[in-house]
Amino acid sequence: MTQSHPLLQVRDLRVQIGERTVLESVSLDVAAGSLIVLMGANGSGKSTLGMALAGHPNYHVTGGQALLAGQDLLALEAHERARAGLFVSFQSPPDIPGVKNNLFIRTALNAQREARGEEPLDAFDFLASAKQSAQALGLPQAMLGRPVNEGFSGGERKRNELLQLSLLKPRVALLDEIDSGMDVDGVRAVVTLLARLRSEGVGVVVISHYLQMIEQLEPDSVLRLDAGRIAETGDVELARSIAQTGFVRPREAVEA
Fold first, then answer.
1. Where is the ABC transporter domain (predicted)?
2. Which of 29, 30, 56, 203 could be a cystine partner for 51, CB 3.0 to 4.6 Å?
3. Residues 6+ apart with CB under 8 A from 114
4. CA neighbor of 36 nearest in space, from 238, 249, 242
5. Distance between CA atoms of 246 and 60, rounded to whole angstroms?
6. Helices (H), the chain
7. Of 230, 164, 241, nearest in space to 27 by CA
8. Which one-letter DSSP state was computed for residue 31?
9. At residue 82, what are phi and psi to the nearest 5 degrees?
10. CATH homologous superfamily of domain 8-96+172-255?
């Protein structure tokens, strides 16, 4: 499913929050149709990577490069990065009071379609597609007409992120603990959706510690982030090893 030329190329990315350097040097490639699992202890910089790539103003890139389909991602404003095809989920999706869920997603989708030179979707066509996707993800259709995430449970917020992902169909998706707060059916929905998106050429990075889901995702590679650097690279066996021993890794395991 992967291609020789990565969709997303990150080279020696360095990021500060305030006066503190969180990412010392991170490099990775995300190819079309590939799935990478990113693991790491709390504070290792996993969420920082996503927020920096998304263009969050509190995350200051001090060096390095990030290319999305050959385009300089770091030179773009946050909304331009989304239009270019980058999707970054929130670890804790916020409420947006007063903005209906279906209007929010349709506006985002039509902004992307405009950037690609496509005609916008009207409310009728969009709603039919949104209802179908919501049903597949186990999200009650009534929530399409409610303000974004207002009164949603943790699992419903994550399913709503999946709904956005399903409808926006980005080039690259970085999902920050998308399984958090999910029940068994929710995790199954994550696995099913990501398998479909990969078959359509979407590159995916999943931040997770949940071994059972990681095994079901069948990742191309597993990366361990430590102190702002990629400390280990492996396959699903690395995830299994971390699940057994934790993030404090014996030297011989890292060298192997």
1. 8-252
2. 56
3. 120
4. 238
5. 30
6. 46-54, 78-84, 101-115, 123-137, 154-168, 184-199, 211-217, 236-245, 251-255
7. 230
8. -
9. -65, -45
10. P-loop containing nucleotide triphosphate hydrolases (3.40.50.300)
135-186 pLDDT, tens digit each: 999 889 899 999 999 999 988 999 999 999 999 989 999 999 998 888 899 8
**207: three-class secondary structure by DSSP:** strand
pTM over 0.70: yes
Nearest-Å Rg of the Cα atoms of the chain is 18
| Closest C-alpha to 129, from 168, 93, 99, 98 | 168
pLDDT at 51 over 80: yes
Q: How far apart are CA 60 and CA 70, in angstroms?
A: 22
Token couple for 132? 């179908």
Structure tokens at 120: 């916008």
